[in-house]
Amino acid sequence: xxxxNAELAAVVAVVAAVSFSGGYFAGRARGAEVxxxxxxxxxxxxxxxxxxxxxxxxxxxSRRILMTVPGIGETLADRILAYREExxxxxxxxxxxxxxxxxxxxYDKIAGGITVGEFREVTK
Length: 124
Hints:
By secondary structure, the protein is an alpha+beta fold. Helices cover 37% and strands 17% of the residues. The chain has 5 helices and 5 strands; from the N terminus they run H-H-E-E-E-H-H-H-E-E. The strands form 2 sheets. Strands 1-2-5 form a 3-stranded antiparallel beta sheet, covered by helices on one side. A hairpin with a 2-residue loop joins strand 1 and strand 2. The two termini are 15 Å apart.
């Protein structure tokens, strides 16, 4: 049974909030995993997802790596890092538009080059 979009979004938000509040991303910038059980199913969050296909994970990328995304320079990279520090990890790529200076036009330009990691169901 698959989760509905709203249910998956809730799982993403809860796990992201729990993992960030525990300092999880601060201590494990690479390969970090968090798991959660929902209705007897286990889901893992893989913060490394996207690296193999060339997308930049905006939840774990350093300033230097963020600046490799066309359209993101020093100022926006610093704002993305500040947003992450103040608000926790992004749960969906479009949330990056909450960062001052990133509107719809820039998002449309960078959307194919960014990711926030992903949840995957783990079989028992």
